[in-house]
Amino acid sequence: xxxxxxxxxxxxxxxxxxxxxxxxxxxxxxxxxxxxxxxxxxxxxxxxxxxxxxxxxxxxxxxxxxxxxxxxxxxxxxxxxxxxxxxxxxxxxxxxxxxxxxxxxxxxxxxxxxxxxxxxxxxxxxxxxxxxxxxxxxxxxxxxxxxxxxxxxxxxxxxxxxxxxxxxxxxxxxxxxxxxxxxxxxxxxxxxxxxxxxxxxxxxxxxxxxxxxxxxxxxxxxxxxxxxxxxxxxxxxxxxxxxxxxxxxxxxxxxxxxxxxxxxxxxxxxxxxxxxxxxxxxxxxxxxxxxxxxxxxxxxxxxxxxxxxxxxxxxxxxxxxxxxxxxxxxxxxxxxxxxxxxxxxxxxxxxxxxxxxxxxxxxxxxxxxxxxxxxxxxxxxxxxxxxxxxxxxxxxxxxxxxxxxxxxxxxxxxxxxxxxxxxxxxxxxxxxxxxxxxxxxxxxxxxxxxxx
Length: 452
Ligand SMILES: [Zn+2]
Known about the structure:
Blueprint (H helix, E strand, L loop, with lengths): L1 E6 L8 E6 L2 E5 L8 H4 L15 E3 L5 H4 L2 H6 L6 E3 L1 H27 L14 H7 L3 E3 L6 E3 L2 E7 L7 E7 L2 E5 L22 E5 L12 H15 L2 E5 L5 H14 L8 E3 L2 H12 L8 H10 E3 L3 H6 L7 E5 L9 H8 L6 E4 L8 H6 L4 E4 L2 E4 L3 E4 L9 H10 L7 E5 L3 H14 L3 E4 L5 E3 L2
Parallel strand pairs: 3-4, 4-5, 5-6, 10-11, 11-20, 12-15, 12-16, 13-14, 13-15, 16-19, 20-21
Antiparallel strand pairs: 1-2, 1-22, 2-3, 7-8, 8-9, 9-10, 17-18
The chain binds zinc ion.
Zinc ion binds next to loops.
């Protein structure tokens, strides 16, 4: 069996691993490179895989750094099956068309400002192409083996987000695992990852290879910010990612109200995409820790704001109240309009609840910027900027070690570290070398590993 690391190696984005055994070829994950320009450029290079000879694609989960290259494969002529959990099928139905829409907007922006590689840059793919590629998705349940050529494959629960799984591949008498993104055992919302079976080789994600999660209870942090804002009679703005984060925030706010820890303020979910994703999460309630009743109760606590008019009308809403809106790093979305209106107001609180990548408005707010540029205007920032740390969907390195210890790996298992920034990959390697018997090393981009 041969594994080629075409992405998600030496970086966190662009996950793509080609497994070849005899005549059978399967691509595990089909992710978009994101972030720095030199990484995004890789989306335009032709990856070294022969689409005509590819038998199947398997997705670990719906995040774009694992699924967002699928429309490119479709555009290049791939028409084979794409296997994933049905939660992933549903989430891709929202995320991929949105990604196509954003690619079109970016291309228009670059054309208008005459920057970038071509005089008339094309989008990587458009919304229509992203919608067409959804027809290739085939749902497979967790723990049910399926065959592709000479290989047997299986998905098993990995926590992280709805539908997320690890992939187990068997062929030539060997068993190989791809962890995918691995959730936390103590996640507020998602169920813990299932232990792995005995494996000859494991590709292990290392996002939190050099960091531990903040031990402060995120419920305490959230309650404090809400109560402060309520006392001042202001608005609490929460920029949020649409998948996972927006749902856990709604759940936490509703629980804090039910437990009498915060006042019963109006809560608005002002993001059509987060509303769609929330409905998918409630539909798949067996996949997370909330029961159907809890989902319904939560639906009564949170008001969904769908139309642009209803979003604009929030400006007339009496204080105090809470608005959850995209995007999570304040790079776009409806949160921008609310920030433009409310950042100059000292009664406002802004709660950043996740990693803010360098260069984003979210990072500038986190660093205490006194003015922020929104839609070409410089907006003074007099608001209270707060952070909540404990909502990450990834296991940290100690939790990862504990997951491996709960698994049935043999001392002879070889581990290749993927999906991490260089410091995180080194941190995870050093930690696992010290605490486990496994042969641990960092996978190289475009390297080929032969297992015999
Ligand atoms: Zn992910």
